[in-house]
Prior knowledge:
Layout lengths: L3 E7 L6 H8 L2 H4 L2 E7 L3 H9 L5 E3 L2 H8 L37
Parallel strand pairs: 1-2, 1-3
Amino acid sequence: xxxxxWLVIGFPGGANLPLWVAEDTGLFARQQLAVKVSPTPNSVxxxxxxxxxxxxxxxxxxxxxxAYQEGQGELQLxxxxxxxxxxxxxxxxxxxxxxxxxxxxx
Length: 106
């Protein structure tokens, strides 16, 4: 029986692959850890769930951490957040693009 339980919320997709592999190969079980991954439809639901302590970990882009920590998120939270980022493993899922005629983005 697991000693610890982690509730994780994130966007559906390949970013969850490490969690699925750890679950399928028994890595979590060997550490007596139960992990429940819940999909989020958008960043507002993700942030609200994390702020209400309904989730332990949120997998999101770094811009969400900065925006809500600075009070500039999509909605005003009822609590002062204490969000932080501790790891990044994905490159290119959130990127800046521009038209070639624009000089500022190359």
